[in-house]
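Q: Could you fold this chain for me?
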Amino acid sequence: MRNYAANSTVAIVVYDGATAFELGIACEVFGDSWPAILGVPWYRTFLCALRPGPVTVDAGFQLQVEHGRDRIVSADTVIVLPSVAAEIPAGIPDVLRQAHARGGRMVSLCTGAFALAAAGLLDGRRATTHWTECGELASRYPKVTVDPGVLYVDEGDILTSAGSAAGLDLCLHLVRQDYGAEIATQLARQLVVPPQREGGQAQYISAPMPEPDSASLFADTLSWLQEHLNEPVTVEELAARSAMSPRTFARRFLAGTGTTPYRWLLRQRIQLAQRLLEVTDLPIDSVAETSGFSTAANLRKHFGRAVHTSPQAYRRTFQTRQAS
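A: Sure. Below is the predicted structure, expressed as structure tokens.
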């Protein structure tokens, strides 16, 4: 398994018309201000274009880009930004193919997926983009399995995200992969965003949270739940804490988060188990009990489904990665 963490290189690919919002996300997450705050070596990040020189982003301001295609091709992780332009600039697909062929991890934010698709890198793979553009992506590139109902798709060496804030979710997902849950959670706190939104969560939540007083009770319930993940809990009990009927609670929870109470709770427990495996030497039985899975067998079952490895293997991989 390739180690993408400390001191690996990140190339953020920009071209005329690239969107300033996603540029800001990538620069903020992978920028050089975090080592002093998080206490770990960080990525080495480069702003790149096909050739060094001025690039004008969609907001109208101009960037002086110092790095060219050689830096893109040699990077460990390549992040492709979306663009307001209808066509992918000539030369971009070729340099992306070269970067991937050399072993680079390819990441697109929002409609940056069109550039990966134009390079043929999404053929036979599952991918996503902004929900308004999923139909166009599927029509233009029929070999791509486009999923409009998720925040991001992780295909291992190629990752794609939906629109706008989903790009931040994917960037935090990369940090979580590379540095573990504890560092990713600390970073999310610094950015004042949720530690993790599951990739399979719906892109577009059509119904807002209900009136403020109910939302406040709802938030209090979730805060309480995060502090009691090791305790057995039912939807009925959560509904009672929120002064709602179980049916109303489940419906409003889905409307407000895009997922069910069960899946939300499971994700929180998995995340806690990851952090315990990373930062403690607790036996697996104790990790299972502390994170609310009760038994090691139950932890292994749910952990394997969510993380695609066993708790023991996750701990060994993380410790090896940290040592290296």
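A (continued): The chain is about 50% helix and 10% strand.
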